[in-house]
Amino acid sequence: xxxxxxxxxxxxxxLGGNGxxxxxxxxxxxxxxxxxxxxxxxKLEMVAARQVAKSQLVAIEDALQVNETRRTQDEYQxxxxxxxxxxxxxxxxxxxxxxxxxxxxxxxxxxxLNKLKAEYDLYVRKREHLAALLGATGDANLNxxxxx
Length: 148
Fold this sequence. Notes:
Elements: E1 6-14, E2 21-29, H1 34-87, H2 100-136
Antiparallel strand pairs: 1-2
Helix pairs in contact: 1-2
């Protein structure tokens, strides 16, 4: 049978916001019944949904890594600030009042750290949710985390 006598169906699935997409192309004989075509298309849609979930999981893993790096840097800066403040106090048994600038800087760093911790927790919950969804569709490869 020539290819011109076949029914060609193309499905494009966007993968994330970077313009990447996955293309599924399927050829059917003209005699293929609608239920058979629908069954194949349902399977393709499930595969496409899993691919989208995988790409989202990878994006979340990347965001977690960036967030963890920023959080580590902020914790380091906060520790450095505390050390500088304590070193300037001399006798640690007699705490000296912090300057307005030191207090503001410390509060700003603590607020940033708390925000990063909240973002991190959100990403972890999203990752766990996506991993659970992928597990429910039978994809055992990502249950332990995404690989890059």
